Amino acid sequence: MAENRGGPNGGPQYNPANISGTGGAGQSGTQPARYISGLNYGQGQETMQQQMAAPMAGPNKSSPSSSLPSLPPMTSLTAPTERPNEPVTAGMDFGAGPGSEVLNLPRERKLSEILSSMIDIDSTGDVEELYNFVVSRGL
């Protein structure tokens, strides 16, 4: 009886479908630690040790596209319209149909309005000074 010494025997390591799209970084379930060059003396080794102590999760193996958002199918450029009763100019501020107000776009705000909304969360008081400056200039 021949002794099996490990050569190409059809094991999972020889299955072409078992190759990770992340270059080997996806087989173990974690991302490999990577050395970052160009850091200060000793910092590269320190970051390697940190990465090995707390490895980051690898890609989700349950579905290759599970990390991608689910998008609706693309509509062909030559497909018939899905809104036959809507004018082509709907959403524009000219022509037939409703104007840009139906698009729910954020309205333009003055700089003083933006700064005013930030005053309460600024603990330094700098925003209030800037706000007073901007108001004095009419911005």
Q: Uncertain runs with pLDDT below 50, 5 residues or more?
A: none
Biggest sheet descriptor: none
What is the total tally of β strands?
A: 0
Overall mean pLDDT: 79
Question: What structural category arises from helix and sheet content?
Answer: mainly alpha
Rg over CA atoms, rounded to whole Å, is 30 Å
* Alpha-carbon distance between the two ends: 90 Å
Tell me the fraction of residues in β-strands, as a range.
under 5%
Global outline:
flat
Helix content: 10-25%
Oligomer: single chain
Helical stretch tally: 3
Give the topology string: H per helix, E per strand: HHH
Description:
With 139 residues, the protein is mainly alpha-helical. The protein is built from three helices and no strands. The protein has helices spanning 43-53, 111-118, 126-136. Helix 2 packs antiparallel against helix 3 (126-136). The longest helix has 11 residues, at 43-53. It is flat, with a radius of gyration of 30 Å. The mean pLDDT is 79.
Task: Fill in the keyword field for this structure.
139 residues, mainly alpha, 3 helices, 22% helix, 0% strand
Quick overview:
This protein has 139 residues and is mostly helical.
Give me the secondary-structure topology:
Layout: H1 43-53, H2 111-118, H3 126-136
